[in-house]
Amino acid sequence: xxxxxxxxxxxxxxxxxxxxxxxxxxxxxxxxxxxxxxxxxxxxxxxxxxxxxxxxxxxxxxxxxxxxxxxxxxxxxxxxxxxxxxxxxxxxxxxxxxxxxxxxxxxxxxxxxxxxxxxxxxxxxxxxxxxxxxxxxxxxxxxxxxxxxxxxxxxxxxxxxxxxxxxxxxxxxxxxxxxxxxxxxxxxxxxxxxxxxxxxxxxxxxxxxxxxxxxxxxxxxxxxxxxxxxxxxxxxxxxxxxxxxxxxxxxxxxxxxxxxxxxxxxxxxxxxxxxxxxxxxxxxxxxxxxxxxxxxxxxxxxxxxxxxxxxxxxxxxxxxxxxxxxxxx
Length: 329
Ligand code: ISE
Known about the structure:
Low-confidence stretches: none
Strand content: 25-35%
Structural class: alpha/beta
Helix content: 25-40%
Distance between the termini: 36 Å
Shape: globular
Number of strands: 15
Mean pLDDT: 95
Bound molecules: (2R,3S,4s,5R,6S)-2,3,4,5,6-pentahydroxycyclohexanone
Strand order of the largest sheet: 12-11-7-10-9-8-15
Order of helices and strands: EHEHEHEHEHEHEHEEEEEEEHHEH
């Protein structure tokens, strides 16, 4: 007998574990399967949520027994596992990035198009952050958007190659810019600095959008802590979203506040709201949130940014026609 919505989670790293425990805590939802080649960790998470543990991620991604699959393994696995779920018409919550190349992302889009309805929700979760929602709602008051500025500071334990920084981190800023402007990227010009060679840690990217607006993304991977800023300048005013207010400690001549060292402190609520929205979409049969098309377009911008870093100068971003399936969203 079925007790509720049956979910499988692929990958039990930080995000996969978060999804597994968050979803398992929701009324009417059962996490019945978790998969990860790290069998020890997988068994631990499986025991915590009362699921069966699998070593082979594809056993869960391609299972016909599930109502939904979360793809939260390494970036390189997202496209293949999402395709396996799509082959069974199983709804997917895929962590970003959708893929690690535009061609692979396009394959997911094409598979979803051949199903003929949306089944993929992409984990670009800032759309669910209450602060980002407020920015979106405030846009009506500032008139046409002229410029968007994003700042993204991260503390990553290991030095990430540039390709990882852009694909794993900047992908959020790329999506925020598209989301608040409703415009697409025309071209990007990237600048970076860092300790040596290709290990840029501090990035600055200037972008032009097809609405005539501009955007600038600033990123720093070795900052003081986690910090995300979104600022929109419009014809009539601007909207600024910084770090949410926390208590200020005043002592010994210092003024201190805690910002958190990673994104869970800043975006924990957004992830939970996202996961609830995904379950709701499984119940209603109407997919919502960031799409596979958003993931594909983000990949095109990621590639253009990487090309600009590599060869210098301005690099054009391709502008594929939007398929009807994604036109209203
Ligand atoms: C991380 O993978 C995330 O998804 C965070 O939201 C982002 O802010 C961070 O930069 C990424 O490394």
